[in-house]
Specification:
With 195 residues, the protein is of the alpha/beta class. The chain has helices at residues 10-21, 34-44, 53-58, 72-79, 109-116, 134-139, and strands spanning 2-6, 25-29, 48-50, 62-65, 86-89, 121-124. The N and C termini lie far apart (75 Å).
């Protein structure tokens, strides 16, 4: 698959690198310097290269949009036609100083982006995952115990959970072991027919 990275900062650089290492053709674009794009492509190995925003977008099957919300208009003005392209955004709709969301309540950043480029298929992903964990998760993908994005911070390991059982003689009306008698379980009774 051909992937165009629009915004090669922390998130775009790491996602593009992971796509390249997984065997995809990647074009890195939109960084503060052309040297950074060249360095990213070299470090990503595989089939990665540096290019312009238009080059990244033109031949890509999927695009990763990883820029600050305030720069989305600039990027979209440089991409050209995005008809039929999958546009994966990890951009949060934050104001210029990152203190507030600019899209709140009735919509989302992805919905607003879909309105800006209705001919593209917009997907929101990776916007709740810090870029610092991406390489570790990718490197551990084939291990028996995979890393979790949520991990236990401290304390002893969690005990194995066993299901409490009732004695057979209760037939569903006795409290579960370890619970107070007010939390009993009983089956609904059928109304008795009057004969």
């Amino acid at each position: 698959m051909r992937v165009g990275v629009l915004g090669s900062g922390l998130m775009g650089g790491k996602l593009g690198t992971l796509f390249a290492r997984a065997g995809h053709e990647v074009v890195f674009s939109f960084a503060r310097s052309g040297r950074k794009l060249t360095r990213l492509a070299r470090q990503a190995k595989g089939r990665a290269r540096a290019g312009t925003v238009r080059e990244a977008a033109q031949h890509a099957d999927a695009l990763v949009l990883a820029v600050h919300w305030s720069r989305i208009g600039d990027i979209l003005g440089q991409t050209g036609d995005l008809s039929g392209k999958v546009l994966i955004t990890c951009s949060l709709p934050m104001n210029d100083d990152d203190t507030e969301l600019v899209v709140v309540g009735t919509s989302s950043g992805a919905e607003e982006l879909a309105r800006m480029v209705p001919q593209a298929r917009v997907v929101s992903a990776f916007n709740t995952v810090p870029s610092e964990v991406l390489f570790g998760v990718y490197q551990a993908r084939r291990r028996a115990s995979r890393p979790s994005l949520a991990r236990r911070i401290s304390g002893p390991p969690a005990p194995a959970v066993s299901r409490p059982r009732r004695p057979r003689s209760c037939r569903g009306r006795c409290p579960l072991p370890g619970r107070t008698p007010t939390t009993t379980m009983s089956r609904p009774r059928r109304p008795r027919s009057s004969r």
